[in-house]
Design brief:
It is a single chain. The radius of gyration is 21 Å and the shape is elongated. It is built from two helices and four strands. The termini are far apart. By secondary structure, the protein is α+β, with helices and mostly antiparallel strands.
Length: about 110
């Protein structure tokens, strides 16, 4: 009877390992839309500020570079709120490698 249990356990272990190896490929970033989503989500968790959007996405040597716009200081009226743009580096798997605030500005200010 223990022999039958071993036979049943072996195929299950093989199917788990196949699924695990298949999920690694699924974690790779498929394109700019997914890179933007991952950058926004990772940065928001890290700095605890609400993200407003993405102003640039480009392929980097080993992943992606995404500019994420963040609401840093909400004010009333909203046109006086302070926003910032962060440059976020993702590796090819979509994990945040580094970030840097590259610009801070008022919502109502015009670009120069």
């Amino acid at each position: 009877m223990s022999e039958q249990r071993e036979r049943r356990a072996r195929p299950a272990a093989k199917s788990i390992s196949k699924r695990a190896s298949g999920t690694k490929a699924a974690h790779a970033v498929d394109g700019p839309e997914e890179a933007a989503r991952r950058a926004r989500r990772s940065l928001a968790r890290l700095i605890s500020h609400e993200t407003e959007g993405v102003s640039a996405v480009r392929r980097a040597a080993e992943g992606w570079r995404v500019n994420v716009d963040v609401l840093e200081v909400p004010r009333i009226p909203d046109t006086t709120s302070l926003l910032a743009t962060y440059a976020v580096e993702l590796d090819s798997a979509g994990h945040l490698v580094e970030y840097e605030r590259i610009r801070r500005y008022r919502r109502g200010a015009r670009d120069d």
